[in-house]
Amino acid sequence: MLRVSFQGERGAYSEAAAFSFFGKKIKTVPLPTFADIIEYTENGKTDYTILPVENSLEGGVGESHDLLYSTKLYAVGETYFRIRHCLIGLGPLDKIDTVYSHPQALGQCRKFIQKHHMKTVPAYDTAGSVQIIKGLNKKNIACIASKMASEIYGVPVVKEGIEDNSNNYTRFLILSKEKTKETGKDKTSIIFSVKHEAGALFCVIEKFHGHKINLTKIESRPTKNTPWEYNFYVDFEGHEKNSKISEVLKKIRKETLFLKILGSYPSAELS
User: Looking at 79, 120, 170, 188, which residue is catalytic?
Assistant: First the structure.
């Protein structure tokens, strides 16, 4: 049975995304931090890691990007998971004045929270916040998490679908020690840095344009070594083993200070 590590408690969106990608016949391993889930796969304690990398409303997950820079694992898959937030609690909506959840979930339900004049309390995990309010056992305190978490911990849903925007998806990368083969409908993720001079980034991007390769994402993150210098995270269509992609990567390597190929994997679609 495949073992998949995810960050959070049972019922977290990451666990639900793992079931969506792999099917139900897997063993999910909950761990406290993103660093832990990657370390488990690097050390062979799990076969795969499922890591959230960006949300359609809140943008990129900075910690995940920093870990992708340092990990030895390869990106071997991706999935888009629809996030449907529920208000979960022991009391009626008009009695609730405080809500717990992960900061990103709180941000995604900002309008609902403001409309009902609720105070917010950040928690490290959405599903973990269900455990917190269950332990507190107060009718004025609720949390935001998934319906699955509500069912697991036996705390009722007060209201479903409280997110500000229904187009709320989180993109997850699947990480493994082994690379994947070309399928013909693939995506490749890379990280690179360039000299801090005019036109340096253009020289890299121009290589993709010249070979008619479609970029699907570009994002920058501080290098953490020198102030105001950045690493660029780029996704593009194609597999690194494809001759055209391989040629472009060779040309890019000459224009960069650093280049890491995170991996190539089948491109997912919104479901």
Answer: 170
